[in-house]
Amino acid sequence: MINIKKFSYTDILGWSISRYDRFSNCKRQYFYDYYAKFDEAIPLEKIQFLKNLTSKALEVGNIVHDIIRDMLKRYQISSKPINKNKLFKYSLNLTERYCNSKTFFEHYYNGELISNSEIYEKVKNMLENLLNSSRFTWLEKNALPSSSEWIIEPDGFGETRINNYKVFCKVDFLFPILDKIFIMDWKTGKVDMNKHSRQIMGYSLWVNYHFGKDVSDIIPILTYLYPQYNEQYIKINNFLIKEFANTVAEETKDMYNFLINIEKNIPKDKKYFPSTSNLFFCKRCNYKEICSNK
């Protein structure tokens, strides 16, 4: 169905929703996330350890996304209905494996004991919401016949080009029905239409770039799985797409301004990456142990 273009590696930074959010929220956190090796004061191993701290909410999202990915890929092999008992047993095992292999922010900083069963119950609830939704029934009826053409979390980081800038937009689930292409993006947290609609714009441009599909033939759906199943359709048109592409260009240039070498993605000194003044944000930051903005 699609030949996803491969790009040769370059050092130049690539825009993504998560990267620019980090940049706009706190420049110091952004530095630690993307330029830790340039810090001359703090060992790289320490920064990497703090970066890799997970949280209960983040881990729920990771587990749910991976289970849905595996479930959809299983449908590409067999069209038999999902055995829910086996699915939930698999989900429990995956939850325990993920949680037992990671260090949680809540435990590291607050001494909180992490309950695998608490995390699993939330995971199970989200999966049940999806499986019991009319959308899932619709997928089995309408999308399953073309499962060989599904794209499920493609390899890599979803690299594409917008206005000739490097951009990363990795879709969760993409599938064709007749002459339309549907995009479904799983959400395990709160509704955030501003941020999530920007993500969908990026995914739509990814489809436009690799498929050559007109935006009128792209149907993006934000799929919220908790506390109940809820969908939000994002209406896109050529004007909004152009506006978004221009925003990506401007935001990329904003990040370029903190580099001394754009092509090699070498940052200015850490002192040019100030901490946020929002101390509430600091309370949830992985790097608060090493940040002077305590």
Task: Give a brief description.
With 294 residues, the protein is of the alpha+beta class. 47% of the residues lie in helices and 13% in strands.
Spell the H/E element sequence. HHHHHHHHEEEEEHEEHEEH
Biggest pleated-sheet summary: 5 strands, mixed
The oligomerization state is: single chain
Shape: globular
CATH class placement: Alpha Beta
User: Into how many domains do the coordinates divide?
Assistant: 1
pLDDT < 50 stretches: none
Overall pLDDT: 94
Across the major sheet, the strand order is: 1-4-5-6-7
CATH topology type: Lambda Exonuclease, Chain A
What's the count of strands?
9
Discrete helix count = 11
Estimate what percentage of residues fall within beta strands.
5-15%
Structural class: alpha+beta
User: Helical proportion?
Assistant: 40-55%
Radius of gyration: 20 Å
End-to-end gap: 52 Å
Q: Provide the CATH architecture.
A: Alpha-Beta Complex
Topology:
Elements: H1 17-25, H2 27-34, H3 44-51, H4 56-77, H5 84-100, H6 105-110, H7 116-131, H8 134-143, E1 151-152, E2 159-162, E3 165-168, E4 173-177, E5 180-187, H9 193-211, E6 218-224, E7 230-233, H10 238-256, E8 259-261, E9 266-267, H11 279-283
Parallel strand pairs: 5-6
Antiparallel strand pairs: 1-4, 2-3, 4-5, 6-7, 8-9
Helix pairs in contact: 1-2, 4-5, 4-7, 5-7
Characterize the structure shown.
The protein is an alpha+beta fold and about 290 residues long. It has a single domain, classed as Lambda Exonuclease, Chain A, CATH 3.90.320. It is built from 11 helices and 9 strands. A hairpin with a 5-residue loop joins strand 6 and strand 7. Helix 1 crosses helix 2 (about 25-35), helix 4 packs across helix 7 and helix 5 (about 85-100) packs antiparallel against helix 7 (about 115-130). It is globular, with a radius of gyration of 20 Å. The model has no long low-confidence stretch (mean pLDDT about 95).
